[in-house]
Design a protein that fits this description.
The protein is mainly alpha-helical and 118 residues long. It is 67% helix and 7% strand. It contains three helices and four strands, in the order ββββααα.
Length: 118
C-alpha cells in the first residue's frame, strides 16, 4: 500500500499517479479554485516561466559574448570585472528559471497557488 504524499497515511487511492488519501483529496477539492481561476493562474505561471527562460538565454548569450572577447587566459582587470558581472547575471537568471519552474510544478502537481497569485 502506498503512502499519501500530503499526510503520509496508507492509501490505495491515486490521483494522476500520485498516492493521496481520501481526506486529503477531499480537502484539496474543497479548496480548489474555479476552473477559470485555475486556467488564469496556470497561464500566469507559464508566462513567468517563459519570461525567465528568455532572460536566461539572453544572459547566457551575453556571457558567451564577453568570454569570446577575452583573447587569452589572463584577461585585463576590467575584463575580469565584466566576466564577474555577466556571470552573476547568468546565475541570477538561472535561479529565476528554477523558481518559476518550481512554482508552476507545485501548482500543477499539488495545487499549491503562490501567495502573490491568490
Amino acid at each position: 500500500m502506498a503512502r499519501c504524499v500530503h499526510c503520509n497515511k496508507d492509501t490505495s487511492l491515486y490521483d494522476g499517479g500520485v498516492p493521496i488519501c481520501l481526506e486529503c483529496a477531499d480537502a484539496r477539492d474543497a479548496n480548489r479554485k474555479p476552473p477559470e481561476t485555475e486556467h488564469r493562474i496556470r497561464t500566469l505561471l507559464m508566462e513567468a516561466l517563459a519570461e525567465a527562460t528568455a532572460r536566461s538565454h539572453a544572459a547566457a548569450e551575453a556571457f558567451k559574448n564577453v568570454m569570446d572577447q577575452v583573447p587569452s587566459a589572463m584577461p585585463h582587470p576590467d575584463g575580469t570585472q565584466r566576466i564577474q558581472n555577466v556571470s552573476r547575471e547568468l546565475s541570477d537568471a538561472r535561479k529565476e528559471v528554477m523558481r518559476a519552474h518550481n512554482r508552476l510544478n507545485d501548482f500543477l502537481s499539488r495545487g499549491i497557488i503562490p501567495d502573490d497569485l491568490k
